[in-house]
Each structure stands twice: as structure tokens, then as C-alpha cells.
Write a structure and sequence with these properties.
Strand order of the largest sheet: 6-15-14-7-8-12-9-13
Helix content: 40-55%
Order of helices and strands: HEEHEHHEEHHHHEEHEHEEEEEHEHEH
Radius of gyration: 30 Å
Distance between the termini: 67 Å
Largest sheet: 8 strands, mixed
Strand content: 15-25%
Shape: elongated
Structural class: alpha/beta
Length: about 375
Amino acid sequence: MEFHEVANIFPLLTGNEFESLRDDIKTNGLLEPIVIHEGKILDGRNRYTACLGADVVPDYEDYDGDDPLGFVLSKNLHRRHLNESQRMLVGSKIANIPKHIHKSDTQIYVSQSDAADMMNVSERGIQMVKKVERDAPDLIPAIESGEMTVNKAIQTARKIKTDNERTAIAQSALDLEPDERWNVSVGDINSWQTDSKYDFIITDPPYPKDYLPLYAVLAQRAREWLKPDGLLIAMCGQSYLDQIYQMMSKHLDYYWTSAYLLPGQPTPLRHRQVNASWKPILIYSPGDNYKGKIFGDVYKSDGNDKSFHKWGQSVSGMYSLISQICLPGQSIFDPFCGAGTTGVAALKHGCLFDGIDLDEDNINISKVRLSEYDSET
């Protein structure tokens, strides 16, 4: 028999739960009849399927009420142990479906707000499920089974969307060539070689503890890449700041520490129980030779921008830094260039830019962004 659309708002039993129901029916028979409405099973889908598996002939009775949705909810909510995400999903299915009112032969529809109240979840939770249904419908079964929360599904859907967009952008870079203003390539900071000397190295290395040794490598290689009066300008997190100072000071002279203000809400650093509202910008020189312009030591982003890279900074933030320190026409190198945000800010200020990154997709995305900005100017 077919299942009624109202009955299908709840997930079917699977695995051990279903097997236990089937074994119980096989041993004790069907203790509660299956309810039929409009020729379809309104209540008892799992019992019906279990009867078929147990070779038991089910009993049926007709539904004679005027609120099939309310009937299904009352029957299932006390039977099922649904987590919050599963209840959000049920609420999403309830929202905007008709309730049959036989007395007036009309239909009214359940609002999202009413559906949220019925399932004891927030209306925002139902809206989040709708977003998953729209952006990543393949994840809905995982929510229904309890394997994935709605929040995790939202994160996964966002990552899938971002990855697809990154792949499309990267593929469009295959025919692009660098010009006299910029050049990016796949390269490893440990082994990359160049004959060029740069006015500035401006970069944002990865922050997790596993990557800490890269700050020592960065400072060591910077001696090869910087002009005598150049500066290394490196963004970092605060959790291991004391270690980073020590590692970099073995190879370069400490010059200054500036502040990069984080836009919006503070970033919670759970391992330190601190809400961070700024990041340090460490400035080092290969010697006491800097004779450039006087610069400010506070930089600010207009907003987060992770659309091209999960660790990416915004163009506005990097432009705030570059425009205060660098002069147009000077050269900037980024050995952790990611998706090229520092390069875009450099071009915007009239600087020259070179960059390397281990990830080929990052480099290709950088090429597209740099080429597009270059063509606009």
C-alpha cells in the first residue's frame, strides 16, 4: 500500500529499531491496527512493512477525524525519540502543507511558525533545513537518520558550494599568463628560488600549532628575498606569539608589532578562553636599514571574506595595511599567497606582486583574481 504524504513527514525506522519491531510482531502479532486515510497508510508504515517481513497479515482501520496532520503528530511524537535536527526536518515538512477540514471542505496551510511550535524547535531551524534542501538535498537523508545535525549539514553544504566555485574559478585560469605587474606560481617556501629582491614580504602564514616551524623558515628565507632596506610583515595568531617572536628573531631584527582589527563579532579561541578582536602583525627587517615612509600600526578590515579561501583575509584589510606602509611601484612578495588577496590589494595600491602557494587551485584562483583586477585598471 502507498503511504499518505502526511505520514511521510516522519522518518521510517531503520536498522536495529526496525528489526526489533519486526521480531516483536513475528512473536506477539500486530497489537495496534494500521490506520488508513484516503486509501493510503496514515499511521503504521513501520508496522505495515514489519508485518510483510514477518509474514503477519496486518489489521486495518479507517481514520474518521478531520485533522490527519494532528493525528500523525500525536501518534508519532510520543513514540519517536527524535533529536533536535530531526524535529527541525519534520517541522520543515509540516510547514506549508495543507490541513484537511472536512466540515467546511476547505484547506488551511501550516505556517513555518506553527510548524516550529508543533515540533518545539525555532523557526530559524526550519529555515536552515529549507536551505539544506535547496543547496544540498543529498544531505537530507543523513539528517533524517540522525547521522548529521542541521548545523553540520549547513557547514557541509557551504563547503561543497565553495569547493565547486573554487574549482570553476581555478579551471578558468588555465590560459592566463602573468604580466609585468604580477606573477604567481606553485612553490614551497622551503625550496623556492628566485633572483628577485623585494621591498616587502607581506604574508599570512597558517596559525595552527603544527605550522609554527614555518615562521622560522619564513624569517630565514626572508634574508634571501628582501632588499637590504626591506621589511617582512607577517600576520599571526596570538596563541603561540611568544614562540613566534623567538623563532623569527633568530634570523631577522625585530622592528615593530602592529594590530589588525577583526571586523564583526570577536573570534572565540576556546583553547585559551579568549574572544579575540585583533591579530598581531609582526614586522622584521634584515638590518637597521629601513628608510621608507612613516606608517601607522593599526589596520582594519571592512568585513570577513572567506569566499576564496577558508583562511583568507579581506581585500579591504590587506589594502589598509599595504596602503599605510608601501609606496606605489614597490614590490611585494607573499610566500603563502593562498587565493591572492594580498596580490589584489597590492595591485589596487599600484604595487608589483609575486606570490607562491603549495596548492595549485589557490594559484589558479589567484591568477583569475589578479588578471581580472588588472584588466579593470
